[in-house]
Amino acid sequence: MKYDPERLFLVSNDDGIFSPGIRNLAEVASQYGEVQIIAPDRQQSAVGHSITVMDPLRVARFEMSNSMVGHAVNGTPADCVKLAHDQLLDRQPTMILSGINHGSNAGINIIYSGTVSAATEGTVLGYPSIAVSCTDFQEDADLTGCREAVERIIEYVLKNGLPKGVTLNLNVPPGPLRGIRWTRQGDSRYVEQYQRRIDPHDRPYYWITGRFEVLDQGEDLDVNVLKQGLASVTPIQYDLTSYKVYEEVKNRQL
Amino acid sequence: MKYDPERLFLVSNDDGIFSPGIRNLAEVASQYGEVQIIAPDRQQSAVGHSITVMDPLRVARFEMSNSMVGHAVNGTPADCVKLAHDQLLDRQPTMILSGINHGSNAGINIIYSGTVSAATEGTVLGYPSIAVSCTDFQEDADLTGCREAVERIIEYVLKNGLPKGVTLNLNVPPGPLRGIRWTRQGDSRYVEQYQRRIDPHDRPYYWITGRFEVLDQGEDLDVNVLKQGLASVTPIQYDLTSYKVYEEVKNRQL
After folding, report:
1. ipTM higher than 0.85?
2. Which among B113, B193, B244, B254 is the top mutation candidate for probing chain A, defined by the most A β-carbons within 10 Å of its own β-carbon?
3. Average confidence (pLDDT) per 10 residues, chain B, 254 residues
4. Residue B152's domain is classified under what CATH number?
5. Which of A171, B14, B50, B134 is the most exposed place for a label (fewest CB within 10 A)?
6. Going by C-beta distance under 8 Å and a sequence separation of 6 or more, which residues neighbour residue B228?
7. Domain hosting residue B150, numbered range
8. CB distance B87–A196 less than 8 Å?
9. Within a domain: B119
10. Do A246 and B187 touch (CB under 8 A)?
């Protein structure tokens, strides 16, 4: 699918504009059309769908190591997408891409993910949007397979579109691509423990620590597909209603 | 349903431990069992499901205006619930309550809500959890109806429990309670615009502004039930999979 200058891709992330992941994502997108990079000016992991309401936002021009130009915002991933949509882009984007995150966003962890929230915000604003993560959190991870998976998903979305209210959440193992599977979100999560320490003034403080626990059975779950070394793509939505429970309880007296 | 000292209610919020809303929620819960208040030490609106991973957390004892004692945490609503579960509570809570938020959490806005995220975190950790918001954002709003609605929902949950993975999101208009309806999450949202200003050094900055737009048809949607002056309770889930779309696409080649 060849380059079309009419297309505009907005690229954001949560690791910050200086991360190798966003550079790779922008390079892949630039094969298909114009790219605008608008991303947080610093690491914003685990910010979830946070937005900045009590402080003003600022925007700075940023030259990337591959000579692309981006804009760095002193806000969250969702802020970047909102501000891009309302103020910074001179036309409507064809698609919004978030990532490539350095680290997996699968299982329950996606509710904490800034990467996913930038893409979800794109969906809220009405644009086809994709979150991309590499399961290797090292900054020098081999993103070959990620780049190929992103190409395939961009081409899929350019061809088929995405239903209203639905975002794609793509996770890819490092190294060459061995295949992509459609998946459901698993129930795996970080099991957190806090480490209690005492500061030099004899006061306690707490550091979060955690280990990822795969709790799921089911071959169609994101976490298990990733364990097999395949890439996983999950259609997710921001309508959080539990329809199953709603149907069961809706006539119960309160 | 009388007081039972075996019950423990963890109460948190996103407006901060000093807010009238959390005091009211703690008072209602204290009719049913022991209450522990563990909440952010400051306003945390719109933080979404953010958690603190790059800084340590601290906890301070806080005497509330109704002579209850709470603990203030320098973190987000989700941090408070995680830390309470792992470090601060001496036994497992019966239920987790978040709120009473000063302002509605209905429609799409719940994805940005710190109030909802504290309750969702409780659900992730396996506790029956309820988020409560008053649709009036004034701090001196009449919470009579809120308090009564919380009583009814606490009694409902003590009697029926909640299915795994499901949180209740309760919104109540100010004033006396006129009834509670089971609802679905609507598609209404804040339509944001940024106001561009120039600072004294000639540099631009952007303030978020917005107006709430009711986009929904449907009598069973949270926003429309609230418009009728009734309280709304929506069962929500943290499994974000769009099952409808998943079923449609799962056999498509990628």
Report:
1. yes
2. B254
3. 93 95 97 97 82 91 86 95 96 97 94 95 97 95 98 97 97 98 92 92 92 84 96 97 95 91
4. 3.40.1210.10
5. B50
6. none
7. 8-185+219-249
8. yes
9. yes
10. no
